[in-house]
Amino acid sequence: MKHKLLMACLVTGVLTPALASANPEPTAYDSRSIAMGLTGVTYLDRASALVLNPANLEGINKLGFTFNFTALFVNQRAPVQGPNTRLDSGVGFGPLPSGFIAGRIAPRVVFAGGIYIETGYGSSFSQVTCLDGDPVGPGPDYTPNNDTNAGPGQCTVPTPQNLDVTFFVGEFSTGFSFLAHEKFILGLALRLPFSKQVADIYQNIGAATPILPSPTYGRVKNDLGGVGVPSLRIGFTIKPHRKVRISAMYRMASKIKLTGTTETALIAGADPITLEAEADWFIPHAIAFGVSYQANSHLLLAFEGRVQFHGAKNSGNQNQTVTATDPDGVFPDTRIVVPFGWENAWSAKIGFEYRFTQDLLALRLGVNVAKGATSAKWAQYFTPPPAPAGVQTVTAGLGFYWDDRNDPSIKDKYRLDLGGLFAFTKDTIGNEFIGQRALVPGGDPDNPIDNPRICSEDQVVRTGCPGEYRVFSYWASVSFTLQY
Predict the structure, then answer these.
(1) Do 262 and 222 contact (CB within 8 A), yes or no?
(2) pLDDT at residue 15 greater than cutoff 70
(3) Is 191 helix (H, G, I), strand (E, B) or coil?
């Protein structure tokens, strides 16, 4: 019975980090939007409007499609090796493709479809010789030589370990715009989300059960994926003046049921055990709104805001419930609440576009002031760092336009857009959370595992540890649009 209980608790605990890898919604759907500070709710009138504000599909006369590819490069720093240590992940790469097509099916109706990545994140820490300030293998006492702020704890030299996590959420979507009035347009889209999470990591599996000593570290592999519940995106655009647009978009929350496997070994050198696993991921409610001003044929200004309700009780990312099941029925099912403690995130954006010539070139710039979702107490190594409100993102790009040579009346039929983005997020956590006992968000107050001491051996993945948490993100984006 002890062996059965040990395995059930152990397998549940090792799922934690694979479910903690999301970078909340970079909105990398269109290079023009990216170059203008991640705006687009008010002015983007091409097929990719389906995902920013479906009302603006009305800008398509007959037919249009957009293909976008964004390369996301991330360099992360966190105190992986122990409190007040520093370790950089190196540059991780994440491709974020998207494609959209739209056509007018009636004088007042444009219909569209698309597939895109809603959230994407990938990060890894290579050749880790110390984890959490605790030994990860045999060897003499050692302080990592790449740690510039080593604490008083000692580490051992094991076989170096790699920590790798990849996560993405994508969506299929279909929708339409309806011209209710020449100055008022409605839009509606149906979204079907899907997700994939893969992790190959080394962690403190001993914290998952009181039977196994903690810390006890082991190799864990997770592979989860699934399709979510369809939900709606609703938008509108008002044109009170020929130069002004006022727009808003509301996205309903979605729940994705993830299923797959988790694999680990109870004892070093033993054959790994594979169990079925399932968990939930929530795409929270979100609202975007803004105003754009087309000053003349050359100058466009956009002012927009966005709020994502990650802190919502039943549809946010406060926690994640994980269940592990033995397919042979030998071991009992077990359940654990994985902490996130994410808060509502918001951003304020300004976009600028200047078209030098009516036929060819446009320059775009943007800036994004935001507050992130991660809370300091529950910050961990593979999540975005806590992000106090401030300027986090600057963007720039170019747009190229070509008319149809065979029909000069079709303006800007071919469009090539290039966009670049640099985002910087940093926060330093002090010693205020070390040893503090806290209830995992949504956890059971009577379950000791759900009431750990922060940044301690009580946790499978340590949260709230003191040190510097930092992410540099670089985007390079290209879009091609055909529209007439």
Answers:
(1) yes
(2) no
(3) strand
